[in-house]
């Protein structure tokens, strides 16, 4: 790879970061959902003012955000009589709106959740810096991980883990499994359902996960252990 090729690779990565930030913003504010509710075809495309009125947001901010999403090919755009209009084509909906099962755009919220305290993370790097950050330094992040993000990862995680025939045979016959740092225990729940002959233990230190974790173990054949008793 040449220096110019690598430079382009770095620039592309940075640009994709900006796009991901825009997707995260649109997901958190449910702007994609709003556009989908208003129009899914060019014939019914709407203006930024219509979207702003529908979402009770400022038109200027809607305009700046949506034009960025158009440039990133996330939102459809046309010009009618000199007026910019927007819509979401049906093929985009499964990837962008909340109601779609396994919506990948939801995971973009991790970006804002993780980077919101980047200055504190930078301060931890020097030898004389603090040892680390706290859970409370990332408000909303773990709640998102517990209730929104973990379910999206069920299939991906299980498929990645269960790629060994011998492992699958052990689980089918009956094995003891523990997941440390399980979050809301969605992967364990999925595995417990798929392999009823095995027993599963979910252990988590972060208390913000406990409510969702307790709901999970009441509904599914999964054992819950407080980390202090594991």
TrEMBL record:
InterPro entries: SAM-binding_MTase (IPR053173), SAM-dependent_MTases_sf (IPR029063), WHD_Rv2258c (IPR048711)
One Pfam family here: WHD_Rv2258c
Domain S-adenosylmethionine-dependent methyltransferase Rv2258c-like winged HTH residues, every copy: 19-89
SUPFAM superfamilies in UniProt: S-adenosyl-L-methionine-dependent methyltransferases (SSF53335)
Name of the featured protein: S-adenosylmethionine-dependent methyltransferase Rv2258c-like winged HTH domain-containing protein
């Amino acid at each position: 790879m040449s220096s110019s090729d690598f430079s382009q690779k770095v620039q592309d990565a940075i640009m994709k970061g900006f796009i991901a930030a825009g997707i995260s913003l649109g997901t958190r504010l449910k702007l994609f959902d709003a556009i989908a509710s208003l129009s899914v075809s060019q014939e019914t495309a709407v203006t930024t003012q219509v979207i702003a009125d529908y979402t009770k947001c400022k038109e200027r901010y809607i305009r700046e955000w949506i034009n960025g999403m158009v440039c990133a090919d996330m939102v459809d755009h046309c010009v009618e009589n000199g007026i910019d209009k927007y819509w979401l084509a049906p093929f985009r909906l499964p990837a962008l709106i909340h109601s779609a099962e396994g919506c990948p755009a939801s995971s973009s919220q991790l970006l804002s959740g993780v980077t919101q305290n980047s200055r504190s993370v930078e301060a931890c790097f020097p030898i004389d810096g603090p040892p680390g950050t706290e859970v409370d330094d990332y408000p909303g992040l773990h709640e998102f991980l517990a209730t929104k993000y973990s379910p999206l990862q069920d299939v991906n995680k299980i498929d990645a883990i269960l790629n060994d025939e011998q492992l699958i045979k052990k689980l089918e016959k009956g094995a003891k499994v523990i997941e440390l740092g399980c979050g809301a225990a969605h992967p364990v729940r999925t595995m417990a359902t798929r392999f009823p002959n095995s027993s599963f233990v979910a252990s988590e230190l972060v208390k913000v996960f406990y409510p969702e974790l307790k709901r999970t173990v009441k509904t599914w054949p999964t054992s819950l252990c407080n980390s202090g008793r594991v």
